[in-house]
Amino acid sequence: MKKLLLVTTLSILFSSFHVTAKAPSPIISQCDEQELEKKAYSQCLDLVKIKIDRELETWENNQLFILEDVAETTGRQSAFNMFKRAQRNFITYRDSNCKWQFLAELPSNDSAPVYKECYILTTKDRINELSRVSK
Q: Does 7 fall in a domain?
């Protein structure tokens, strides 16, 4: 099995200049683009994206369960309803935030991986936030 490098640099085009990431998230490192061809790297990111979506769904369901319990105890649904709204807003934000990065890369072949990397990292940030508030 190929050994994956732990640290790679990701360049993302923002407007007319490049910003270089210090080191990619460990979740993206498993798809080290220096070891994989562009198509294989993109396919690997697709698999990570599926995995991270499942993880987010687990944390979302956990938070909904907690807030349902609070609603039953207190009789107030406001936190439950606001969380559902926040989650919908997160999905909209993530989509828009990653799409502008994708569009900024066009017509480069790197545009799809840029979108997927953004999607994965933004979702991972949301998971971290939900895990923090669930404790």
A: no
* Tokens of residue 108, six digits: 């480069």
What global pTM score does this model have?
0.76
User: How many domains, in total, are found in the chain?
Assistant: 1
**pLDDT of res. 78:** 94
How far, in Å, are 66, 81, 108 from residue 119 at the CA level? 26, 25, 18
User: Exposed, middle or buried by CB within 10 Å (0-12, 13-18, 19+), for 120?
Assistant: buried
CATH number at residue 105: 1.20.1270.180
Residue where the block lists tokens 């396919």: 43
pLDDT under 70: residue ranges of the chain: 1-26, 33-35, 135
Q: How far apart are CA 71 and CA 58, in angstroms?
A: 20
Which helix (H) or strand (E) is 53 found in, with range?
helix 38-74
